[in-house]
Amino acid sequence: MTEHAGVSVTAPVERRVEVAPGVFLHAEQRAGERAAAPFVLVHGLASNVRLWDGVAAYLHALGHTVVAIDQRGHGRSDAPEGGYDLDTAIADLRALIGAFGLERPVLAGQSWGGTVVLEAAWRRPEAVRGIACVDGGVVDLAQSYPVWEDCLAKLTPPALDHLTLAELEARIRKGVPHFTDDAIHAYLHCFRTRADGTIEARLSRSHHLSILRSLWEHRPSTRWATLKTPALLMLADAGDQARTGAKRRAEAAALAAGGPLRSVWFSPGHHDLHLEFPSRVGDLLAGAVREGFFA
Asked: Could you list the residue range(s) of the whole structural domain that residue 261 is in?
């Protein structure tokens, strides 16, 4: 069942941050106590900042400063023609951290966001105190799809632009009937309504596929042996034996590398663990700080 964070909600302060000449990204800050570790929350592919609302509110209620972002081309951020690759995603993230003046934040990323925070920490371990990869950042996509064309055929998003927002909402509610209204609305924020009443994804198909290609080319398995930053894996077992098996093999290889790593399974768990279990995800993040794992 979907959890409720059970904490008071404070409206975040919204900002548009210039991360490259003429490119502004949307970010939301909940300012906390100066002594508490700050968090930066990074969404996944074709997602948006709203999916982190419950976790952000939970962490902020514990005194942490929390910044959640819409990545380039997503949500309310700008969508320039270029920059839909891993290097640019990391550069955008660094620019946002600098703009908010955050000192060694914990980076939490879901799905594609997990890859972004893992690579950011691997490249600049001194800049962060810890990372959390929420059902992402651990499996090499090319292991499942050795040929790019197979990956493209399997993971190209379905066409939904013939639907109205109400029709899409009905589909989502059927797929995840236990999700809260707030969770459903977070999904709907991935789309905008056109003048004729039909919807379009905020992330264009061409930009989506550029990001997918960068994910397919990346090999997170090569990072664990030399990763210096403490990392927390949160992994979802949704009942798909093949996917869960791939995650377990990747998890075992990461743990065997011997770095500062711990993992937690949600079974059963939806891919969007941060949306399904915001209080549990928030508690794991805050606990890793409290226990000194993220130091």
From this structure: 13-290
